[in-house]
Amino acid sequence: MVPIYILVPLVMLTDAREIAFYIWSNWFKVTLICQYAKHGSWLQIGAIQRCVNYVLQSEIRNWEEKMGQSSVLMLHPSKSPMALLRRLIYQSSQNTKTPTAVKSAIVGALRKGYERGQINGDLASFQRILHLQDEDKIIWTFGERGTAEIMLVCHIATTILGARLPTHQPPAYSEHMSAANHISQYCAYLVAHYPELLPEDDEWCKSLYKAVEKDAKRVLAGNDSMESETSELDYQRRLIQLLSAERNHKVLKDGARLAEQLAEEGEEAAWKALAAFWSEMILYVAPSDNIDGHMEAIARGGELVTLLWALVTHLGIVGRSDNTTDAATVDV
């Protein structure tokens, strides 16, 4: 009976913690305000007024303007004990302040969608084509592949293209580079840790990410010294050669081939195309009917995709023009 006596209080404490966590969440406070405004009779009941005042007195957790960052390619793994411990604690993800370039790119993509007439109650399926912005030249067509798979393919290409960039002089296209890199790693973070906020099956997204990450670690194992022995351009070429090997995961191979094709177009044109692609992609996944998932995100302090979900919902955008739910049809 002793284990039962220990287990029952623990279960009760866990339930009480979950209830308290919900009561003090932003979502509950917003719901309470809506219900309080809707029921005029509550204004006459002092006990209800005191309860509402007590709950609303607590500070509402605002979004800290941070976005999670993850990557399936650990190109610069640190081997210090503290770095290893930090990686275990944060599950290979970290938060960074959302750059202004990211906000500008997303708002710009939304504005362009309206100007082109692509948005009319729904968001167009932007992510199926990657093309150069100035020439409108198609670089890559994704066909009917799932959203998570497309994200990982482009994430790998973006990571390779950004490998070993010079730090002494920021290029003229640094804003495009910053937007593409940050949104790319944020989408990888969503696939790995919060796939319920994406329009695909949760478990399939997680298993796909783990399979690609595992294969990437196998491919890159033993190549840590490569970056110190080669120039930036040779390093990128070596990465493409390693990741595009025939026995690798299809996502790795396609990501490497896409990086190679982007590099041939020139870095400035490539980063401009990637910045546009990623800003349109994050807008594409923003509409959602998964209220519970976004409620939990708000309770944690907010996610960038949750703010975009609220934004596009208020703009009357509640779906996608292709009117399809992405299907997990690729072998993991």
Automatic annotation (TrEMBL):
<protein>
    <recommendedName>
        <fullName>DUF4220 domain-containing protein</fullName>
    </recommendedName>
</protein>
<dbReference type="Pfam" id="PF04578">
    <property type="entry name" value="DUF594"/>
</dbReference>
<feature type="signal peptide">
    <location>
        <begin position="1"/>
        <end position="16"/>
    </location>
</feature>
<keyword id="KW-0732">Signal</keyword>
<dbReference type="InterPro" id="IPR007658">
    <property type="entry name" value="DUF594"/>
</dbReference>
